[in-house]
Specification:
Blueprint (H helix, E strand, L loop, with lengths): L1 H18 L18 H6 L3 H17 L15 H13 L10 H13 L21 H19 L4 H15 L23 H16 L6 H13 L18 H13 L6 H12 L7 H5 L2 H15 L1 H18 L16 H13 L12
Helix pairs in contact: 3-15, 4-5, 4-6, 4-15, 6-7, 6-8, 8-9, 8-10, 10-11, 10-13, 13-14, 13-15
């Protein structure tokens, strides 16, 4: 019953978007727009979206466990969930040891740092899917990304050896066998032999954040990862989950475009065709199936890609998803995860929604233009 109700509500929203797309781009910006002020034209936030972020952060703070981590849905101790929650606070300008959430962030940073093992891998080790978390390399990427952003902002000395160990793990476990469908990629486990685009981009983003924070990262590792990402592009402009599948998806395409932008490869055919694919597959009734299964994951990457591109894609995409997130926020400040093939839960959905709303603020160094 819940699944059918959510589907009906989501379809009603998509029909609304189809019927009335013109209003969103006419919302008032936070400040007067000068024709020379590029940042003002890109911001597109509203007082309503800013209040939604603060309400979401209050919810996350209340949900934090006493030891500093967050649990969400079927992931009671997954480092990826805690990494994403930490990133949500950082994206709104909060830092460890400062302001109303300083203690929350101190606890989160300490908990994540303690999960780094001697090998450099973030816990939990072992199985592809343990009782406490998801695939280890997803967690590794998001946790490393969050701690790298913290380190870049604060230079907390105790983090550096932890980050260096986590970087070495990625450099040592990347596929380097010359096979075009594997070379440069990573997958679920910290060992070569398999690869997919989703995990590869998470690890690539984490390494870029480390590099931006002044840590030593092998440029050859980054170059191989970008090679894998480019080979995952399909003739229709979208990106496949694994090379050779030729099955495009908006979430992966947004992620691929973002990675290429951050590598200063926006003029490549793969990036330009990916942007075209995103413009041709907006969030509307016609493309419902492309977004529904991993909704928050998709809007997380598509929003970042659209921001990097700017222009019509940004002005079209962001106001619609901004207003939808404001509209669907619960009274307690949370958002709900979609029921279609996901058990990530409301804490995950709330962190991702905040990260989406905060993209135009540009406070996370990894995603700044």
């Amino acid at each position: 019953m819940k699944r059918r109700l959510w589907s009906a509500l989501f379809m009603a929203f998509l029909l609304f978007l189809t019927a009335a797309p013109a209003f969103a781009g006419q919302q008032r910006t936070k400040r007067p727009v000068s024709p020379w002020d590029v940042e003002a034209r890109l911001y597109l936030g509203t007082p309503q979206s800013e209040r939604a972020v603060e309400r979401g952060l209050k919810y996350l703070a209340a949900q934090q466990m006493p030891d500093g981590h967050w649990a969400s849905g079927g992931y009671p101790e997954d480092v990826a969930i805690t990494g994403l929650c930490l990133l949500a606070f950082l994206s709104a300008g909060y830092q460890p040891g400062r302001g109303p959430y300083g203690t929350n962030l101190d606890l989160a940073v300490d908990w994540l740092a303690k999960q780094v093992q001697m090998s450099g891998q973030f816990a939990p080790p072992g199985l592809i899917r343990s009782a406490n978390g998801g695939p280890p390399m997803y967690g590794h990427g998001f946790a490393l990304l969050a701690l790298a952003e913290v380190y870049g902002m604060t230079r907390l000395r105790g983090l550096k050896p932890k980050l260096e160990a986590a970087i070495r793990l990625l450099e040592d476990t990347q596929n380097q066998n010359g096979q075009p469908w594997l070379d440069g990629g990573w997958r679920y486990m910290p060992r070569p032999g398999d690869a997919d685009l989703s995990v590869t981009i998470v690890e690539f983003m984490a390494l870029k954040a480390c590099q931006n924070a002044g840590l030593a990262v092998s440029q050859e590792t980054l170059n191989r990862a970008i090679g894998y990402i480019r080979r995952a592009a399909n003739p229709d402009g979208g990106f496949s989950y694994q090379i050779g599948q030729n099955q495009s998806n908006v979430a992966r395409t947004g992620a691929g475009v973002l990675a290429l932008y951050l590598s200063h490869l926006s003029n490549t055919p793969e990036c330009q065709n990916g942007l075209r694919y995103l413009a041709e597959h907006p969030l509307d009734a016609r493309n419902f199936w492309l977004y529904r299964e991993h909704f928050h994951y998709a809007i997380y990457y598509v929003t970042q890609a659209a921001y990097q591109e700017g222009g019509t894609l940004w002005r079209t995409w962001y106001p619609s998803i901004r207003d939808e997130l404001v509209r669907t926020q619960n009274a307690n400040g949370s958002w709900e995860d979609t029921p279609f093939g996901s058990d990530a839960g409301g804490v995950y959905a709330t962190a991702m929604s905040i990260l989406v709303l905060q993209v135009p603020a540009g406070l996370l160094p990894i995603y700044q233009k």
